């Protein structure tokens, strides 16, 4: 997503406002344009990050990450993992001992997200970060997926085809704040 049109719009608005103040105001507006561009880009990234946080809460265990490529953000959508085929799930349920009763319809996933503090030993934190990076996910998205897959009967906590360089495009993942 190219932020340049939005930043250019802000510059034009600043120039129009400075016109009313005369030559000194115009000169000041020109000097402030470069620092304001950085502030405007950061503000837009914060807004996009917050919006994608809301979208991710609705998609859990899927996610939407904001990646920064140069000066421009891009969105990476990771859909929730596909459910296991029924025969495999039934076999797992028959073998597994019931650890907890199945949630009632009222307790079923209503899409509400909650915050949890997780303290990991340093060696596990590093391994979780590496695993998330290898799958092109944020650590939070990777942990949500791992917990979801684990509680739903095991399996691998990753989306097929989501590698470190998915689609031939490497880069940073995570939330911009």
How does this structure look, described?
The chain has 177 residues and is mainly alpha-helical. It is built from 5 helices and 2 strands. It has helices at residues 4-19, 23-59, 86-95, 122-134, 139-151; strands spanning 63-69, 72-78. A two-stranded antiparallel ribbon has the order 1-2. Helix 1 (4-19) runs antiparallel to helix 2 (23-59) and helix 4 crosses helix 5 (139-151). The radius of gyration is 23 Å and the shape is elongated. The protein starts with a helix and ends in a 26-residue tail after the last helix. Residues 97-102 and 156-171 have low confidence and may be disordered.
Note the topology.
Blueprint: H1 4-19, H2 23-59, E1 63-69, E2 72-78, H3 86-95, H4 122-134, H5 139-151
Antiparallel strand pairs: 1-2
Describe the structure concisely for a colleague.
About 50% of the residues lie in helices and about 10% in strands.
Please tally the β strands and state the result: 2
Oligomer: single chain
Helix residue percentage: 40-55%
Low-confidence stretches: 97-102, 156-171
Q: Give the CA-CA distance, first to last residue.
A: 17 Å
Put simply, the count of helices is: 5
């Amino acid at each position: 997503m190219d932020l340049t049109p939005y930043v250019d719009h802000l510059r034009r608005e600043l120039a129009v406002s400075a016109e009313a103040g005369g030559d000194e105001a115009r000169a000041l507006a020109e000097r402030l344009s470069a620092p304001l561009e950085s502030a405007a880009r950061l503000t837009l990234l914060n807004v996009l990050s917050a919006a994608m946080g809301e979208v991710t809460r609705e998609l859990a265990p899927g996610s939407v990450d904001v990646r920064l490529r140069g000066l421009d953000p891009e969105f990476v959508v990771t859909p929730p993992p596909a459910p296991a085929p029924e025969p495999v799930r039934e076999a797992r349920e028959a073998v597994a001992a019931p650890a907890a009763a199945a949630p009632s319809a009222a307790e079923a996933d209503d899409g509400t997200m909650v915050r949890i503090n997780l303290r990991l030993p340093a060696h596990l934190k590093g391994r979780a970060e590496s695993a998330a990076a290898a799958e092109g996910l944020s650590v939070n998205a990777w942990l949500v997926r791992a917990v979801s897959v684990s509680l739903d009967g095991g399996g691998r906590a990753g989306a097929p085809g989501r590698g470190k360089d998915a689609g031939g495009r490497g880069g940073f993942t995570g939330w911009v704040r």
